[in-house]
Write a structure and sequence with these properties.
Elements lengths: L61 H17 L3 H11 L5 H10 L12 H15 L1 H4 L5 H11 L5 H10 L10 H9 L3 H10 L12 H6 L3 H8 L3 H15 L5 H12 L11 H14 L8 H21 L5 H12 L3 H13 L3 H10 L9 H8 L6 H6 L29 E4 L2 H11 L4 E8 L10 E7 L4 E5 H4 L3 H12 L5 E4 L3 H10 L11 E3 H9 L17 H9 L19 H27 L4 H10 L1 H10 L22 E2 L4 E4 L4 H9 L3 E4 L8 H9 L2 E4 L3 H6 L7 E3 L5 H11 L2 E2 L16 E6 H14 L36 E3 L24 H4 L4 E5 L5 E3 L4 H6 L9
Parallel strand pairs: 1-4, 2-5, 5-6, 7-12, 8-9, 8-10, 10-11, 13-14
Antiparallel strand pairs: 2-3, 3-4, 13-15, 15-16
Length: about 900
Amino acid sequence: MYNHRGRGRGRGRGVFMRRPNRNKETETTTSSTPHNDNSPVSIRSTTASLINKVTINLELDEATETWFAQFRNLWNFVKRSPPTSNMLTQHLDTVENPYEHVLRLMYNSFDFKLAKSKSLTMTIMEEFKIYSTVSRNRIHHLLTSEIKIAAFNVVRKQSQFGLMKLVVDIYEMLNDCDIFYDLIVQMIENKEYKDACQCSSLLRLQDKFGIYEFLVPLVLQDKLVIVEEFLNDSPHHQYDLVSYLDSILGQPSSIRITLDNYIVKQEIPHVKFEKLSYKPWRKLIVRLIKIYNLPADVSPYLNKKRNEGALYFLLNKRFVDQSFGYESWREMVEEAVQDDENLQKDLVVQIALFGTPSEALMWANYYKIPREDWPYSVRLFNDNPDKDRHQQQNLQPAVEENWDTVNKKEIKMPVLKLNLPPDCVILVDNPEGFRTFLDYIKTETLIGVDCEWKPSFGVQRNELALMQIASRRAVYILDTISLAHQANLWQELGKTVFNNCDILKLGFSFTGDTSMILQSLPSLSFNQNGGFLDLLTLWKQIDKHPKVKLPFEVHSGGPSLGMLVQICLGYVLDKSDQFSNWERRPLRQSQLHYAALDAYCLIQVFDVLRRCSESVGFPFEDTCYHLMTVSKGKKKKSRTNIGKSKDGPRINPQPPSPHYEPKPAEQVKFVCDSMLQGLGKNLRRCGINTAILENNEDHQECVRFYQDERRFILTRGTVFNTLNGYVTPGHCFNVQSEDVDEQLKKVLEYFNVTVTKDDVFSRCQSCNSNSFVKISKSTINAIALEDSKARQLEYAEAIDLADEATGFSSEDDDFCPPPISYTRKWETCTEEKIDFGLCMTRNGAKIQIRDVPEGILNKHDIFYICEDCGKVYWDGTHFERVLANRLQGIVMK
């Protein structure tokens, strides 16, 4: 975490920024956004002499070196134990300043750079923490500010956050946290945003910085884990950052164009430009709002765009699908449009375009839109509503509308009616009614359960509005909004009904309802194995049995409750009230009817499934019992035993290849799942543009790469079943072989990709770039000289660079560029693009000169530097050997 040597891809270049002086009132507020030229993002320079310097001698004298060797031998034998503790304590009693001396021991430990929990370094520091606590009165005066800064700078030379926290605690840095402010400022000036963010949080200096110093750059670098860790302890930064991110959506230009000027001006390195588009930006805002439970007004521009999308969705549902009742349509339109005058005008225009000027006129009057903003057809209709106009006739839909019913021409079956008297649909909205309901329902043995909540088009969290519980004789509709705070009543419902295995509870695709219940009614805790039967799962099981025939046949539609009702009952469900504002009170009669029917029809469908199954000898009761009690446990068990069964998990068949003709390597792009990182490196070696998921990235990221960059997806195992459903057939490939070389051959064969010698090694295996700076021997040595001047004290133990001596990979020595005589399919530019002072490429990447052994610098005449990650390559000697071995039969002659 605090090791600065490795950096990702980027487009910016690192330069120093100035920071304006802050007063007490403005330390934690922001006045403008980074996309403005007058943004307060510059960082004030500092001249503190101790910044990034260790002012104490870290070398061990001869006597200490001898003692330390003995201590290491003892530790190797007994690890952390009383003997090692006593030996270290006795040694510290003999030194002049234990706080200073233990830094030398820590720094010279062989495992200092990767100090894990049971390492020698952690043993020393954990024992010293005890020692410093016991001896505090005697040695505390030796703990000076200079020692604290030295300890901070020493521990930053390693990569483990746990050791960093321990050192901060031992050296009591929080008591003097302000002395580290300049160090963090210097990190920001050096573009070390990650370290600055983590150190400011660790040292409780969050309030000294706004969002622009490092949070916004980290967002642009897509280092969101670091950002969220910081925000967890800083509520005002949560609001400020989300407000800024939302303000970008309010700009007239695209996100990329809006931020380009800011990125170039501040020269932020390693920007993930593929993230600077609406979808990932919007998802980030929504994620942060949900994580930190921020109010809706923090994102007005996101809400506006969501409402625009909601409006067009509602228009499509009403005028194209014709599946909205008028009242539901009006409620949801008012919810989407609200007070936005532009959306109000757009609503009138769109309705007029659908050929209903009378409805458009109604909305124009309702929102008091000036006549000059009315569409022409609406003005004509207003002036003479009875006149027969040719323009309007052309716009009228072919089917006459009926606002309150489903389009009858599209329905071949009658609409399902609720076969209960009106007084058997009972709305429960007070405690007395709830107790009456409990007395009734606990005597039933079979009930149907369904829930309703208002569709949410914004970032607000949905809340449960109704819960319907139906028996054969009545349907109770529980108003959860009115009764939400009646915790004792919901607890009683959970105890007597939801946790009662003697009552069979029917639902359809009940996972969503369950999540909503647990979220909105935490008092209603229940065991989902306590007598719950999902009819969707039961339907799938019955459908596998060839002898079970349900009464009606329907040849279109997906596995929905409406479809199951049609197959079992021969009726369609009227969904005209499905998209309703279920939070508005009082509820309409049509809403109550819809809600009651959705729960009651579950019992009707269950009866038909039972009757049809038992008539052909299908084990209906056993199947239901198995689904209610065994399925979840069995699912978990099979998940942990994947690959152990004889046949293994069922994988969907691979569709045909999308390529019938050969495709050159440069015309194909892939994304490799995290399980296929070795294959990804092989594809890059062949010059193929390949994105590779990191271990911590979700498999669904492959779909984003497919959608945004049109990359073919490479995955394996059961993940293929999931990802393949999101893409065009043939655009996701299931890699079956365990051998990396065999995987490469199969992928190239399936996608019909041709690889030539000019493709091989034309891309950087570290970052996938194909843009390189071509430099001479004298230039690479000049860069090495500049870098050596800037180096801090090197680590005590020697670093073996032999593994990286070939540049492209540390896996073996085959990853070298081919001789210059070949024409590479890469982009090269001249060495004038190098910033010698900062040892950076024009894209802001630190040149990784330290990874090149000194002998190599004088051995070759030409070097190549990747512009995006700074990795250095040179002309290899193994090119022909690679072609003759690992790439034999792959590369065209």
